Amino acid sequence: MHPILIVELLVLVGVANALPVIAKKIMGTAGAWPLDGAITLRDGRPLFGHSKTIRGVLIALLGTPVVAILMGLGWKLGFLVAASAMAGDLLSSFIKRRLALPPSSQARGLDQVPESLFPLIAARCLVPLSWLDVVVGTAIFAVAGLVVSRILFRLNLRDRPY
Hints:
Number of helices: 5
Number of strands: 0
Low-confidence stretches: none
Shape: globular
Structural class: mainly alpha
Mean pLDDT: 91
Protein backbone atom coordinates (compact mmCIF):
# COMPACT_ATOMS: atom_id res chain seq x y z
CA MET A 1 0.00 0.00 0.00
CA HIS A 2 0.98 3.60 -0.62
CA PRO A 3 -0.59 5.59 2.24
CA ILE A 4 1.20 8.89 1.52
CA LEU A 5 0.29 8.74 -2.17
CA ILE A 6 -3.33 7.96 -1.27
CA VAL A 7 -3.45 11.01 1.01
CA GLU A 8 -1.87 13.23 -1.65
CA LEU A 9 -4.37 12.06 -4.27
CA LEU A 10 -7.28 12.53 -1.86
CA VAL A 11 -6.09 16.09 -1.22
CA LEU A 12 -6.22 16.71 -4.98
CA VAL A 13 -9.68 15.12 -5.22
CA GLY A 14 -10.80 17.32 -2.36
CA VAL A 15 -9.36 20.40 -4.06
CA ALA A 16 -11.07 19.53 -7.35
CA ASN A 17 -14.40 19.17 -5.56
CA ALA A 18 -13.95 22.20 -3.30
CA LEU A 19 -12.89 24.76 -5.91
CA PRO A 20 -16.33 24.98 -7.60
CA VAL A 21 -18.00 25.41 -4.19
CA ILE A 22 -15.55 28.15 -3.21
CA ALA A 23 -16.02 29.87 -6.59
CA LYS A 24 -19.78 29.87 -6.04
CA LYS A 25 -19.37 31.48 -2.62
CA ILE A 26 -17.03 34.14 -3.97
CA MET A 27 -18.64 34.83 -7.34
CA GLY A 28 -22.31 34.03 -6.71
CA THR A 29 -24.08 33.53 -10.02
CA ALA A 30 -21.48 35.41 -12.10
CA GLY A 31 -20.31 33.10 -14.87
CA ALA A 32 -22.36 30.20 -13.52
CA TRP A 33 -23.71 28.98 -16.84
CA PRO A 34 -25.21 25.51 -16.65
CA LEU A 35 -22.87 22.91 -18.10
CA ASP A 36 -25.78 21.07 -19.70
CA GLY A 37 -27.07 24.22 -21.41
CA ALA A 38 -30.28 23.81 -19.38
CA ILE A 39 -31.48 21.05 -21.70
CA THR A 40 -34.17 18.68 -20.57
CA LEU A 41 -34.17 15.00 -21.47
CA ARG A 42 -37.17 12.91 -22.47
CA ASP A 43 -37.89 12.10 -18.83
CA GLY A 44 -38.59 15.83 -18.30
CA ARG A 45 -35.55 16.31 -16.09
CA PRO A 46 -32.33 18.21 -16.77
CA LEU A 47 -29.22 16.36 -17.90
CA PHE A 48 -27.19 17.47 -14.84
CA GLY A 49 -29.07 20.37 -13.25
CA HIS A 50 -28.34 24.04 -12.66
CA SER A 51 -25.74 23.44 -9.95
CA LYS A 52 -23.26 21.93 -12.44
CA THR A 53 -21.67 24.89 -14.18
CA ILE A 54 -19.05 25.59 -16.80
CA ARG A 55 -17.34 27.86 -14.27
CA GLY A 56 -17.16 25.06 -11.70
CA VAL A 57 -15.62 22.55 -14.07
CA LEU A 58 -13.16 25.08 -15.49
CA ILE A 59 -12.05 26.24 -12.07
CA ALA A 60 -11.42 22.62 -11.01
CA LEU A 61 -9.52 21.86 -14.22
CA LEU A 62 -7.34 24.98 -13.86
CA GLY A 63 -6.86 25.11 -10.10
CA THR A 64 -6.18 21.47 -9.26
CA PRO A 65 -3.09 21.23 -11.51
CA VAL A 66 -1.69 24.33 -9.79
CA VAL A 67 -2.14 22.68 -6.39
CA ALA A 68 -0.59 19.46 -7.75
CA ILE A 69 2.46 21.43 -8.91
CA LEU A 70 2.77 23.06 -5.48
CA MET A 71 2.61 19.59 -3.93
CA GLY A 72 5.38 18.37 -6.27
CA LEU A 73 3.06 15.98 -8.11
CA GLY A 74 3.00 17.60 -11.55
CA TRP A 75 0.27 19.33 -13.49
CA LYS A 76 -0.66 16.24 -15.55
CA LEU A 77 -1.66 14.31 -12.44
CA GLY A 78 -3.55 17.35 -11.14
CA PHE A 79 -5.43 17.75 -14.41
CA LEU A 80 -6.21 14.03 -14.63
CA VAL A 81 -7.52 13.98 -11.06
CA ALA A 82 -9.63 17.09 -11.66
CA ALA A 83 -11.08 15.84 -14.96
CA SER A 84 -11.97 12.44 -13.58
CA ALA A 85 -13.37 13.89 -10.32
CA MET A 86 -15.59 16.19 -12.37
CA ALA A 87 -16.65 13.24 -14.55
CA GLY A 88 -17.58 11.28 -11.42
CA ASP A 89 -19.49 14.26 -10.04
CA LEU A 90 -21.37 14.70 -13.33
CA LEU A 91 -22.25 11.01 -13.42
CA SER A 92 -23.63 11.33 -9.89
CA SER A 93 -25.70 14.34 -10.90
CA PHE A 94 -26.98 12.57 -14.01
CA ILE A 95 -28.09 9.55 -11.94
CA LYS A 96 -29.65 11.77 -9.26
CA ARG A 97 -31.70 13.60 -11.91
CA ARG A 98 -32.91 10.26 -13.31
CA LEU A 99 -33.95 9.31 -9.75
CA ALA A 100 -35.85 12.63 -9.52
CA LEU A 101 -33.61 13.95 -6.75
CA PRO A 102 -33.25 17.74 -6.82
CA PRO A 103 -29.88 19.41 -7.53
CA SER A 104 -27.62 19.58 -4.47
CA SER A 105 -29.69 16.93 -2.67
CA GLN A 106 -27.94 14.26 -0.66
CA ALA A 107 -27.44 10.72 -1.93
CA ARG A 108 -24.96 9.02 0.38
CA GLY A 109 -22.39 7.01 -1.50
CA LEU A 110 -23.50 8.30 -4.88
CA ASP A 111 -22.21 11.75 -3.92
CA GLN A 112 -18.81 10.49 -2.77
CA VAL A 113 -17.86 7.26 -4.55
CA PRO A 114 -17.70 8.23 -8.26
CA GLU A 115 -15.90 11.51 -7.59
CA SER A 116 -13.14 9.67 -5.71
CA LEU A 117 -13.17 6.29 -7.45
CA PHE A 118 -12.77 7.72 -10.98
CA PRO A 119 -9.70 9.85 -10.12
CA LEU A 120 -8.02 7.07 -8.18
CA ILE A 121 -8.49 4.62 -11.05
CA ALA A 122 -7.30 7.22 -13.58
CA ALA A 123 -4.25 8.09 -11.45
CA ARG A 124 -3.03 4.51 -11.87
CA CYS A 125 -1.89 5.60 -15.35
CA LEU A 126 0.65 8.01 -13.82
CA VAL A 127 1.47 6.74 -10.32
CA PRO A 128 2.04 3.31 -8.73
CA LEU A 129 -1.39 2.84 -7.14
CA SER A 130 -2.67 -0.67 -6.44
CA TRP A 131 -6.31 -1.74 -6.60
CA LEU A 132 -6.23 -2.00 -2.80
CA ASP A 133 -5.05 1.63 -2.68
CA VAL A 134 -8.01 2.59 -4.89
CA VAL A 135 -10.53 0.79 -2.66
CA VAL A 136 -9.04 2.17 0.56
CA GLY A 137 -8.78 5.69 -0.86
CA THR A 138 -12.39 5.62 -2.06
CA ALA A 139 -13.60 4.44 1.35
CA ILE A 140 -11.59 7.12 3.15
CA PHE A 141 -12.94 9.82 0.82
CA ALA A 142 -16.53 8.65 1.29
CA VAL A 143 -16.31 8.93 5.07
CA ALA A 144 -14.16 12.08 5.10
CA GLY A 145 -16.47 13.74 2.56
CA LEU A 146 -19.42 13.48 4.93
CA VAL A 147 -17.40 14.91 7.84
CA VAL A 148 -15.78 17.73 5.83
CA SER A 149 -19.14 18.69 4.32
CA ARG A 150 -20.57 19.35 7.75
CA ILE A 151 -17.52 21.41 8.70
CA LEU A 152 -17.79 23.49 5.50
CA PHE A 153 -21.48 24.05 6.23
CA ARG A 154 -20.65 25.37 9.70
CA LEU A 155 -18.02 27.66 8.17
CA ASN A 156 -20.74 28.92 5.80
CA LEU A 157 -18.89 27.59 2.76
CA ARG A 158 -21.64 25.13 1.84
CA ASP A 159 -25.36 25.78 1.59
CA ARG A 160 -26.27 22.40 3.11
CA PRO A 161 -24.53 20.18 5.68
CA TYR A 162 -24.04 17.41 3.09
